[in-house]
Amino acid sequence: MAESILENYTVAWICALQEEYEAACRMLDEEFTLPEQLDISMKDNNTYDYGMINGHYIVIGCLPNGRYGTVSAAIVAKDMVRSFPNLRFALMVGIAGGAPTPENDVRLGDVVVSSPDGDLGGVVQFDLGKRIQGNGEGSSQSFKRTGQLNAPPSVLLGAMPRILRFHRDPRKPDNLVEHIKLMDDRADFRRPDLDQLFQSDYLHQSAGKSCHSCRREHTVNRPRRAGNREVMIHYGTIASSNSLMKNAHERDQYAKDQNILCFEMEAAGLMNNLPCLVIRGICDYSDTHKNDEWHNYAALTAAAYARELLITLRPANVQEMVSWASEFRISTPARNR
């Protein structure tokens, strides 16, 4: 009986931080308490929360406290598939640092979703490649990316245009805001007031995280955005690595050269190991002005998009997908009786 309960779960929702985990659990239509005798694989070190959204059975896993990066994410995912043999795909949901450009008006609280763009599948490991010496004394070196990460499953990509169409149509209700309201009782998850993008050559002026000492005349003048949506959705390439991006000049170069929309630290550990879609709420601008003020709200907007995706997806279409264990020939050890 316990084993059959585990087989109901088709969607893995993976988080890295506490605020992401709390937002994820709040998005569930129903939250389940599974029997204590549930026979999770002995090799599975994760703890889980369980629930349902729109008929999809969802298991939520969070990276161990203080453990971040691509390797930690890969370990959590591998443990999940040992215990839940019928998982079809994973959603990596959380926060990231934005890479705004004149072409991509990414702002704090916006949502970035991994989607194929040119020869990129939606996520690029930007620290995986070759640094090549320039030709001549004093010339700069260049970086050549190597390797390719898989694109998200077609079933998930197919749902994304409909979500974006409804979100852009002013006649339609703002579904993301409705999902965000599920955490209205948490003041610490409300939208902050101040969104400042500083010029790329202007460094943070305080030893602390606050930007109160940073001078406003060094902010980028950005016009108020048109439309009636609180959160904007961006589809494209997410950059992933084991190091945190806090360099505005590098941020701008990657955004220009590879059309990067944001930077994060886990997705590259998942994309070639399991079918995965990455959803990121923008919490800072990947520069020295990085602080935690927008963390909670950005985690919430990413979770709201994930909920909207699962509401859009038909459970029958998900059931028709091949399970992780079958597609990647991952052996699930016999359970202890």
TrEMBL record:
Transmembrane segments: none annotated. It comes from the Eukaryota. GO terms for molecular function: catalytic activity. Pfam families: PNP_UDP_1 (PF01048). GO terms for biological process: nucleoside metabolic process. InterPro entries: NLR-like, Nucleoside_phosphorylase_d, Nucleoside_phosphorylase_sf. Residues 11-296 form the Nucleoside phosphorylase domain. This is Nucleoside phosphorylase domain-containing protein. It comes from Orbilia javanica.
